Amino acid sequence: MKSQEIGRKIVKNVFFNTLGRFYGLFVNILLTPYLIYSLGAEKYGLWVIVAVITGYFGLLDFGVGSSFTKYIAEFYAKKDFKQLNQLVNTGLVFYGLFGLLIFLLSLLLLKPILSFFNISSVSHPEVYPLFLISVGLFAFSNMISSINTLLWGLQRMDLANKVAILGTTLMALGFFTVLKLDFGLLGLIGVNVGVFLVTSSLDYFFAKKIISDLRLDPRLFRLEMLRKLFGFGLKIQVGRFADMLSFQAHKLIMSKFVSLQGVALYQVGAQVATQTRDVPLLLLSSLLPAVSEMHSLGEKEKLAKLYLKGSKDLALVSIPLAFFFIAAAPQIIRVWIGEGFESAAVVVQILVFGYLTNVNMGVASSIAIGSGKPEMQMEAGIVTALATVILNTAFAIEFGFLGIPVATSLSLVIGALYFYWRFSRFIEIGKAGETLSLYLKPLFVSLVPLGFLLIVNNSLMEGLFQNRLLGLGLLILEGLSFLIIYAYLLLLSGYVKNEDILIWKRAFRTEKFGYSLPFLRKIGYFLERVFPDTIKEKP
Predict the structure, then answer these.
(1) Taking the complete model, does pTM exceed 0.90, yes or no?
(2) CA dist 205 to 31, 90, 147, 202, Å?
């Protein structure tokens, strides 16, 4: 019964994470063209580089922050509030000192870093204060990261996403206002500061409501707890550093060997392609704390089954999404940004292959980390990062702009293949044919609507996308057509089993879960009517 309850948590948390993610995606779709045309391509590229370089400072914490979600979930599952408080306050003290160090380092390193990547303070006088404020905000957010991750570790993604949706709304309104008032990049970073203060306060308020014993007291700092965080987190941090190189370093290489305008073009394409990775990962967004809970309860024998089931669900979503973006990339870019960004569509089509391979190792990665084996992801990340730096530099010099997405995609495939090899030695995941079959049916089924859209877009409707409003309607129609064809053929193939439907029926049929929305029950009733013959749940 305990494992069934964990399954319900996973399904419900996935729902709320999906809700929050799609709201953020919707706002980003609206904001990006506005930012590009308000700032100009070069300043937008500078805004992207600010985020990339600032993010690298967070990799200097030796992985302490990476451990919070795992240990919060474990301590809360055991109702060990003493260690939970020690964990939160150890993080608070450590990151307070760490944030001060980061800020001092930035005073010494920012100018040479910006100079290396051809970013001049003469042509962009706001760049230095912009980076200093960004680093200061980053340092402060790190200091209270143990508080901000509480809701995730407690598996209350419903509350976490409500706070995130509010923050996204405030950010969008703030960005619109400061750009209308012509406050530029410094105005944007000011909005980020205000939004962070609001959302962090709400995170703590809700966590305190759930854990009445929660205390913020620096005297609860424990050196042994810090050692515990270091021991687990250092391996994850190496993997995080590798991931940052894999997904961000190519933008710096683009700035070095191409131009800031090239960074802007690449970022537009990468934002579209990233959805083929980020949207399917929503299925895994609540998996790590759930795996940590199962691991702490000694339910290791179920991890192999969880891998197969999770990978099947992931393939069900990620493969058709990737194929749709390949078919519709030029139309998506034209409708979203407008004319003049055709190169961004090619970036989408190239990156999709690497992102698709990378995302489908997500279930295995969550299981490995939740089971206390983060070194597998660390090693795979190192392989990917080395390939990224070497191949991106070589391809950028040799082939220019388009060499970057090709090298990035190839690097992600190399890293994923290494990870699968390591993971298969850690856990028995069945025969190779059984694992491969999880991906083959969605792959072959997706080829049919892919071919249909390529023919329609290239032969029949190319000129219709010149009108952006009409093009948006056509894209929605194409997406629905792709989904209907894919779903129909997949059901005919027998890929979706009765037990798959039962998991969702069970999750939505339970009593109200925390702050769950009322229409969740309607989803459950819909599943009951559409799939009345699925196997009955045993009492």
Answers:
(1) no
(2) 29, 19, 10, 5
